[in-house]
Design goal:
The chain contains three helices and no strands. It is mostly helical. The protein is elongated and about 115 Å long.
């Protein structure tokens, strides 16, 4: 085969391969976008599910945060209870230390 014929054949094969690739790409897009809106259906479904999950999370947070301060009320209650328990424990420890000091001080004299 002469060089010119070879180049023509290479161009023809290249055009054919490009056309085949375009055809396959079109088919793939059609399969992924059944509703023909330009966006893959799987992506649209994932976005809808993410939006639904976000709305559910917002609703749950609103339910847990009745006073709308950004902190779930139950967490606030637990925090306050833990603070009170820590204060009570500190008071008992101080009382125990005072009594122990009194006993130890009483035996020395």
């Amino acid at each position: 085969m002469d060089p010119k014929g070879f180049l023509e054949r290479a161009k023809e094969l290249t055009r054919s391969a490009a056309a085949e690739a375009e055809r396959r790409l079109r088919e793939l897009r059609e399969r992924l976008d059944q509703d023909k809106d330009g966006r893959p259906d799987v992506l649209e479904k994932a976005l809808r599910e993410a939006e639904k999950a976000l709305e559910e999370a917002k609703a749950k947070l609103a339910e847990l945060d009745q006073d709308k301060d950004g902190v779930p009320d139950k967490l606030k209650e637990l925090s306050e209870a833990a603070k009170k328990a820590a204060e009570a424990a500190r008071a008992k420890a101080e009382e125990a230390a005072r009594l122990l000091k009194g006993r130890l001080g009483g035996k020395e004299g």
